[in-house]
Amino acid sequence: MTRATSPVLTRAVADALAAGLGRARREDAVEGRSGGPRGNAHLTAWTGLVLFVLFAAEGITLISVRGLLSWHVAIGAILIPVALLKTASTGWRILRYYAGKSNYVKAGPPPLLLRLLGPLVILATLGVLGSGVMLIVVGPTDRGGIWLGLHKATFILWFAVMAAHVLTRLFPAFLTVREARADVRVPGWLGRGFALIGSVAVGVVLALVLVRADGAWASLAGHDGEHDRPVSSSTSTGH
Hints:
- This protein has 8 helices and no strands.
- By secondary structure, it is mostly helical.
């Protein structure tokens, strides 16, 4: 590391920490029927907190993936449209900023480290969810082994980048949501609510479809569980 880059890195880390602690926040203006930058911030924050709860629930299923396979698939399915909504929300803000939209430019971009981390979070999230869907589609075949390896690899990457993302974005999201509940001046709240509730509803429908489609994996998990337990234990669901 050169002396020239050291102050830049130090400043980038300091800015990220300040944002994560809520000490440095963007001034989001209210604009138009959608609420403009502030409306976008509200949608992103609400969606982020819903994702945090869902990912936490998905993490609990990792305690016993085989025993909780249906729950693992169902929660993962619900995560997909919600994650796409958050990607769309943050992507819209990025596009408006780089297109030179005045209120978005005035609010400014996130800190440098968070801008660099953002694409990795999106790619890792879509990778781990997409590979999970492919696992259900191909089933426990030779191709399933390839997708299982990819699913595990993307999960490791996702966990690393998501840990950093949560540390820097969770508290600011909580502050934004708290303000959103009291800020009745921001138009577009009904549309944002429908978008979030709608994404969860689509996820629930997708979950019902995928849980019914994962029969081969569920059967395999059940057979593995039978090998691990005595034959007389007919109610076993496996580990």
